[in-house]
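User: For a benchmark we're assembling, each entry needs the component sequences followed by a predicted structure for the full assembly. Here are entry 17's components. Please fill in the structure.
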Amino acid sequence: MATISTTNSIPVAKKRARGLPVLARSLGNSSTPLSIACFYGLVILLILAPIYPVMAQANFQAIMGSGVMAAILGGHLAKSFNFSALLAVEVFSSIYGLLFGGLIAWMGGAVLPITIEDGTLDLALSRPFSRTRYYLESWVAILIGSVMVSLMLALGVWIDTFIVKNSGVEWPWMWLTLGVQWCFLFFAAGLGMLFGSFMSASRAAGGIAVGIVVLGYLLNTFGGLADQLQWMVKISPFRYAPAIDPLINHQLTWWYPCVLLGVGLVCGIAGLVVFNKRDLPTI
Amino acid sequence: MATQEPAIKIDNLAKAYGQVQAVRGISMSIERGEIFGFLGPNGAGKTTTIRCMLDVIRPTSGSIRVLGLDAQREAHTVHQHIGYLPGDVRLPGRMTGKQIINYFANLQGREPVLLKTLVDRFDVEMKRPLKGYSKGMRQKIGIVLAFMCDPDVLILDEPTSGLDPLLQKTFNEFLLEEQARGKTIFMSSHIMSDVEKICQRVAVIRSGSLVTVEEVENLREKAGQQITVEFGDTVAAQELERLPGVSNVSKTNGSYHFNISGSMDQLIKTLSQHEVIRLQAQEAPLEEVFLKFYEEPEKAALPIQ
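Assistant: Structure for entry 17:
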C-alpha cells in the first residue's frame, strides 16, 4: 500500500458545476418501471395495427356502446368504429390511467424511499444540497419519465398510421388526448411523491400510491353502473381524464384535466413540506 | 462565518422519539483543530447526536452550532464545510465506486481534490459495481466520500468499523495528518485503543446523558498504574488498601495486584518496610476507565466540564 502524505500541497477545492445529479440518478433508479411502461405501451400499439382489420369486421360498436363497457373504459364511443376508436378502447381509455398511471405512481412513491434504503439520502443531505432541491429534482425526474411514456405512445400511434390504411388519426386531437392523459400521469406522480415524502420503504410507498390509483379506477367503473353511485365517479380521478372525448368525439371539458393538475400539484407540494420537516430514518 | 467560536458547540441538545428520550440535554464544545472522541454503548445516543449535527434529524430542544453557524437554520452553509462518514456505509449496488464518487462530488459542488491521495492510500476499488463490495471496501469508499473535498470539519461515526488492522493504523495516521492541517475531527468509536491514541478529549454518553467530557491525559492519570508486587515476607491486603489512590487489590500466586492513581510516594515508603522480591508497574489501559463509564452509573461520577 502506498504511503502518500496529505501534507503535500493540496489545492483548494474549486467549485464544480453541479448539473442535476439527483434528477439524473432518480431517472436511473426508475429505469426499470419506465422501460416497462414504454415497452408495453409500444407493444400494445404495434399489435393494434395488424388486428384492426379483423376488429373492424366484428360488431365492435355494439359491444363498446354498452353502459358496462363505457363504465370500464371511462367513456362512450358515440361515433362509428374506426382505428381511433380502437386506440381509444385499447390504450386511451381508463386502462391508460390504470397501467401507466399506476407505474408513474409507483415510481413517484419509491423515488425518495429508495435512497433511504440504499443509504445515500443521509450522505446527500449532509452536503450543501437542500432538501427542497433534492425533492424537486426527484419529482421532475418522475415527470420527465411520464413525458417519455407519452412520447413513446405518440411514436407507437405514428408508426401505426403507416401500417393501417386510412387510419383517420387526427393529430391535433391525438396530441390533446395525450395531453389529457399526461395530466393524469402528473396527478399520479404528485400522489406518489406525497406518500414517498413520509414513508421509508419504497415498496410500501409505491404500493400505496398504486393502490389509490386502482381504487380510483374501481370507483369510476362501479360508479358508472348506476345513477345512485355517481358520487363514486365524481371522486375518482379517472373521471377527470376523459381521453376518449377528444380522441373520438372531438370535445373536451377543459377544466377536467385542470382538476388533475391541481390535485397533483397540491399533493406534490404537500409532500415537499412533509419531506422538509421530517426526521430521516436509518434502516 | 464566526472565526472565534468552537468548531462544534452543542448546547442542551435533546431528542425524543415519541416517548423514548434518545438524547437528554447534552452540552459540549469541540475546539478547532481537535480530534474529539465520542464514546458510549450501543443505543446511548451517539448516532442521534451526530444526525442532529447534520440536520438529518431535528432536535426536540437545544441547539448545535458548527463553525459558529446554526446547524439547522444555516445547514446549507454548514454543509459546505463538513465531511460525514456514517456508521453503516450502505451504497447503491448498481453504481461503481467511480460513479458514486462523481455523484457526491456533484452534490458537494466542489472538486474532489483529495481523491487521488485517498484512493492510493486506502487502495480503494473504483471500477466494480458496489454490490460486490465487502463491508471494509464500502467503508473505504465512505472514507473517500467524507474526505475527498477537503472539508474543515469531519464528523465520523465509527470510522474504522470493518477495516483490517493495517488499514485502521493507516486511517489513524491519516487523521493525525489531517489534524496537523488544521482539520477538526469529531468521531464516535467503540475501539478504545484508537481513541486513546489519537483523541485529545473524549465525551462519554450513556442512556442519552453525557457522563463525562475529559481530556485523554486526565483519564490516563485517573486510570493510574497497574502494580504487581511479590513480597518475601507476610503483608496483609488491608495495609495496601489503606494507601491513598490504591484500588482493586487482589492476590494471585503469592503476588499482589492493584491499581494506583496519583502520587506513588506513600506506596514506595510502605514497600520499603518489607522484603520486595518483584515489583512491576505499568500504565493501566484506558479501556477499563471507559468501561466503568459504560457500566456503572453510580461509580462513574466524574466531574462533567
